[in-house]
Amino acid sequence: MTAFGLIFALTACGTSAPASAPGLRRVVGTELVSARGATLTDQRKIDRTVVGICAADVWTRDECARHGASAP
After folding, report:
1. How far is CA 42 from CA 25, 33, 35, 58, in A?
2. Its pTM surpasses 0.85
3. Is 70 exposed, middle or buried (0-12, 13-18, 19+ CB in 10 A)?
4. For the segment 29-61, what is each residue's pLDDT rounded down to a tens digit?
5. Are 56 and 27 in contact (CB under 8 A)?
6. Using CA atoms, how far apart are residues 68 and 54, in angstroms rounded to an integer?
7. C-beta of residue 30 within 8 angstroms of C-beta of residue 45
8. What distance in Å separates the CA atoms of residue 32 and residue 9, rounded to the nearest whole number?
C-alpha cells in the first residue's frame, strides 16, 4: 500500500501544464516543426530551439553544454 502512495505522490510531481501555450511557444519557438536533422539548415533550426530552452533556464547549464558538445 505504501508503494502505491509513493507512486501517486511521485506521479504528481512534474506533471503540471505550462503556464500558457503562447508562453511556451515564445520559449521553444516553432523551428522544429519541419526539422528532421538531415541537413545543416535542420541543425540550425534545432540549435535555435535549444537556445530558447537554455535561455529560459528550462534545461540546466550542463544539459545545454552537452547539446553544444561535439559527438566523439
Report:
1. 19, 10, 5, 22
2. no
3. exposed
4. 788 888 888 899 988 888 888 888 888 888 899
5. yes
6. 11
7. no
8. 33
